[in-house]
Amino acid sequence: MKIFNLLEDNINDRYLDQIVEALRDGGIIIYPTDTIYAIGCDALNNQAIETVCSIKAMKSAKTNLTIICHDISEVTEYARFGNREFRVMKNNLPGPFTFILPALSRLPKAFKGRRTVGIRIPENKIACRIVEQLGHPLLSTSVEGKDEDYMCNPELMAETYANSDVDIVVASGRGGIEPSTVVDCTAGGFDILRQGKGELVL
């Protein structure tokens, strides 16, 4: 496992290249978002998604999956939404929100059978630079915390996952403990499934 220290105002391009190369090779990373640190992989690599699900002990076929996109234009390739949803996403993104939208078929096998996908565009330059350079979305699932200190501390996460399939920990200082606000857009409205860090602006 490698640990790369990156700050939003000082992103080392050499480290970024290595992170993206690892993702393209099916690697797994822990990385910062604008809420909680996340475990992720190339969202179009089916085997890597299954590995993330194994690390988190998730049943991939029954678990809601979330992807991080670079911008709303990229979201159109993976999810279906109308003008109302576009306006609300534009009002709130980038930001600490997960929008649940109908999934499109471009997503890989691990998404098959799911009718929805979670969409995030975090207000975090590191996550967004990784997605931009990768050229397509990252899978995103929060690092589960044993306690508050663990959830904030990437060095402790690196110790915990040292013998796992995690290849790189992107350490960017202390993370947050409050998750994103989850907004379900699939029933014609904007239903808050989980109130988190973000206050939705309609």
What is the element layout, followed by pairings?
Elements: E1 2-5, H1 13-24, E2 29-31, E3 38-40, H2 46-55, E4 66-68, H3 72-75, H4 83-92, E5 97-102, E6 116-120, H5 125-134, E7 138-142, H6 148-152, H7 154-160, E8 168-171, E9 181-184, E10 191-194
Parallel strand pairs: 1-8, 2-8, 4-6, 5-9
Antiparallel strand pairs: 2-3, 3-7, 4-7, 5-6, 9-10
GO molecular function, one term: double-stranded RNA binding
Protein name: Threonylcarbamoyl-AMP synthase
Domain YrdC-like: 13-198
What do you see in this structure?
With 202 residues, the protein is α/β, with parallel strands linked by helices. It has a single domain (2-194), classed as DHBP synthase (Alpha-Beta Complex), CATH 3.90.870.10. The chain is built from seven helices and ten strands. Helix 1 (13-24) packs across helix 5. The termini are far apart. Residues 13-198 form the YrdC-like domain.
